[in-house]
Amino acid sequence: MSCALFIGRSVLDVIALVAEYPNPDGKIKALENDLIPGGSSLNAAVVFANLGGEATLASSLGASGLSRNFVLAELNKYSVDLHDICDDPYYHLPLSTVVSTSGLGTRMIINDSQDDCDIFRDCRELFSGKFDLLQLDQYERYFVEQHFSEIGDLDCPIVLDGGSWKEWSPDFLRLVDIPIVSEAFLSDGFESFIEMCANLGLSRWAITRGSEGVIWRDGDKTGEIPAVSIEAVDTLGAGDIFHGAFCHAFAETGMFVEALNSANQIAAKSCESMGTRSWMNA
Description:
Elements: E1 3-7, E2 11-18, E3 32-38, H1 40-50, E4 54-59, H2 66-77, E5 81-84, E6 95-101, E7 107-110, E8 133-136, H3 141-146, H4 148-153, E9 158-162, H5 169-173, E10 178-182, H6 190-199, E11 204-208, E12 214-218, E13 221-225, H7 238-253, H8 256-270
Parallel strand pairs: 1-4, 1-8, 2-6, 4-5, 8-9, 9-10, 10-11
Antiparallel strand pairs: 2-3, 6-7, 11-12, 12-13
């Protein structure tokens, strides 16, 4: 059984599925509502565990309360081993407001105004563990900065979930072995990303493009994986699910392109139902 460490974001998603977005200053009745623990690393860890791996999540859950307890129950349900890294009594689990459309298969996300936690517990025990793979999602950046050397010294491949370009993205790229990023990460364009990876010695990477599929490089080989044809209901968390599924397949087999293919299939399946968990029981 493969084991992986996920360092990054945990949130509580407040979700509404609507037929279409309301006009400015308008109102609309939701088709469905839900409250789901989310965040890029939390979702990826849950997927990894659901597929049969041992997932450890290093993330900030913060102060005690109903939200924290709700998220803890979710992690326990899927047997994800949590390391709450935050030691700030005033940090609260972020809320993320999500409106998804069944008609367009798109979503709108409003993130919490709160910044990452910057006061941490002693995490030496975390880095003494042995993992087959580590994923970073560009959140918990202060924690990653503080433990840059310990993370780099772990004897396993490090994957980047690059959802969008951030001012600290170069620091994360210097730490990882396999960046898997979305088109939104390519702030200076496709060619600039390729050149940046080459300069950093990154010979394996992939770019996810939604309905346009996935572009990849593996050493001297390049290719494209077409998108799976589906009727999308909700794309929320599809990128997180892609990463969790990739991490599991790659940790199990070491086969890069095959792992991308598997992740592509699973992420597409997740878009056929609402939320980030329904597909698991479909």
